[in-house]
Amino acid sequence: MFHLFPTTHSVELKQLLSEFNRSLMLIADKQLLISNFLSKVNQITPVQGIFLFLPDENTEKYKMQGLEDKNVSYFMGRGKLVNWLAVNERPLVVSESSSLLSYFSEEERKLLSRLNAELVYPLNVMNRISGILVMGKKVNGKEFDKKELELLSLLFGQAAFAIEHASLYEIQRDRLKRMYRTDRLAVLGELAAGAAHEIKNPLTSIRSTIQYLSNDFDVESEKGQMMHELLNETERINKIVQGLLSFARPSELNSMEVNLEQLINQTLLLVNNTLKKQRIEVEFEYFTEQTTIMGDAEQLKQVCLNIILNAVEAMKENDESHPRTLYISMEEGTLIDVRSRYLLISFEDTGKGIDEEDIENVFNPFFTTKEEGTGLGLAICFGIINRHKGELEVRSTLGKGTCFTIKLPQHI
Description:
Elements: H1 10-25, H2 30-44, E1 50-55, E2 61-64, E3 74-76, H3 80-88, E4 92-93, H4 98-101, H5 106-114, E5 117-125, E6 128-136, H6 146-214, H7 222-248, E7 256-259, H8 260-270, H9 272-277, E8 281-286, E9 292-295, H10 297-315, E10 325-334, E11 341-349, H11 356-359, H12 377-387, E12 391-397, E13 401-409
Parallel strand pairs: 8-10
Antiparallel strand pairs: 1-2, 1-6, 2-3, 4-5, 5-6, 7-9, 10-11, 11-13, 12-13
Helix pairs in contact: 1-6, 2-6, 6-7, 8-10, 10-12
EC number: 2.7.13.3
Pfam families: GAF_2 (PF13185), HATPase_c (PF02518), HisKA (PF00512)
Enzyme class: transferase
């Protein structure tokens, strides 16, 4: 284990840097890389806490990595702290900057206090802050000296490039996955349309014939009940066919100004009795005043309703010790082109979660983990969001819950 500082000789310093860089280069997975990086830093200079904040692809925030706390766990990308780090291009030593702290926002001061921050270090790549490292006080109680800060600067410079590379790789990989999924669903849609039309015509004849023949039997008789069951089954098949047609040949968008805050509240009102019956609490927060987009209100309501009902289904089996809470949040985001702004809506439940091997299939038609249902709901939702030039994503942890995230541009 290396400790700062008897690394006073250049040979020891080179060995330290070499081992540190090698440990970064051998890992391609972003989360493993971050975990290894934080562990190595804490070995080199043990501190009471160490936290990494990275820019979120969807929002103008630097979000804490590896933390599921829904409270204050981010720095605003255009906030005063990030601006100070960008302008000064040096770390902030909190204990030496008491007068400066008043310059930061209340939220920033609270987060620094919550983390017991002593050192706030910008990770710079190409004159841009690609991350923020927050370190607590040293375990030995001593302050960070100039030599330590210089060495940390060398270490963090290499780490910044490694993490940036891993982040870009992850973003590109996810984009390729989304493109592949969209293309795959388009092909499945064409196949589904053909199959639905082939089934629909004979099904109409079968249903008409059963209805005609059922008139010859008493409803209470055995044969009458059999006819009733046959009609129910043909109706079930008809619903599947209609679902296939909705998936393959969706209706045109009736684009108009839609207030998403109102739309979500209206949807929650529709399922209010169901939520109460299942003892599910809803926490709805929005972090933007701009909640209006151009879109099809009815189709977007269908998406929200489907996701909320799925969340209800996922939390049905929660026992008394496991909370039943649906967290809904809305915030504004921007793409690289600042003119391309969108709203980000997240629906996060505390249900049973989805197996990792099933995540890639949740938007496929006929895929379902429920005892009842056609498995077409999320496939249709994916198509609706795609036609709005948006994105629908899912992440889940088995035993903890699932989060569906909708990204919608403010203008189609």
